[in-house]
TrEMBL record:
GO terms for molecular function: DNA binding. This is DNA-binding response regulator. Residues 147-212 form the HTH luxR-type domain. The modification 4-aspartylphosphate is found at residue 54. Gene3D superfamilies: 3.40.50.2300. It holds the Pfam family Response_reg. Signal peptide: none annotated. The lineage of its organism: Bacteria, Bacillati, Actinomycetota, Actinomycetes, Streptosporangiales. Keywords: DNA-binding, Phosphoprotein, Transcription, Transcription regulation. One of its GO terms (biological process) is phosphorelay signal transduction system.
Amino acid sequence: MIRVLIADDQGMVRTGFTVFLSGQPDIEVVGEAADGREAVERAAELSPDVVLMDVRMPVMNGLEATRELMARQGTAKVLILTTFDLDDYVYEALRAGASGFLLKDASAAQLAEAVRVVAAGEALIAPAITKRLITEFARMGAPRPVTGRRLDELTERETEVLSLVAQALSNQEIAEKLYVAEQTVKTHVGRVLMKLGLRDRAQAIVFAYETGLVRPGE
């Protein structure tokens, strides 16, 4: 069972998500939180696998709550709830440790699938959000100094896989592009994360752009 904590300051949103997710055979809603501070406290108490985290909440916003959750080295994955058209914090959310983004107008089926994807350690970043993220990297200009030793630990194939992950391609899409089995791609991705000390694909995307391995427009 995938244990889920729902953090949103709107009671109707929490109730709607809870009702639907509780009806899934592999998902259990273990708690709710009305603000970021409560989300951090409830996560420490309940040890969920996934936290559905709204950003605009009182007391402590979702970005601050995500940073604190990650600083505590918890095992929970954070799935950011966003209205996208109004929210300009995609990059900040990834830096804070978020594993994915879910539009608040997503369907019930998309909600359940998003929870499963993030719980499995995959990054959930829609193409439109990826474009915004790349725009932010372009605005930042020059990349941070590349840590050669860390990148040198990757094989040529692993480096190639990382660059494709940074373009938000799925394992299946990478496998088709490289003419290899999907399981082979999963193995490469796992090794990349381990060698670079990254938690998931979302962090890998940030790493690839920040170090200049991949540049906007390539």
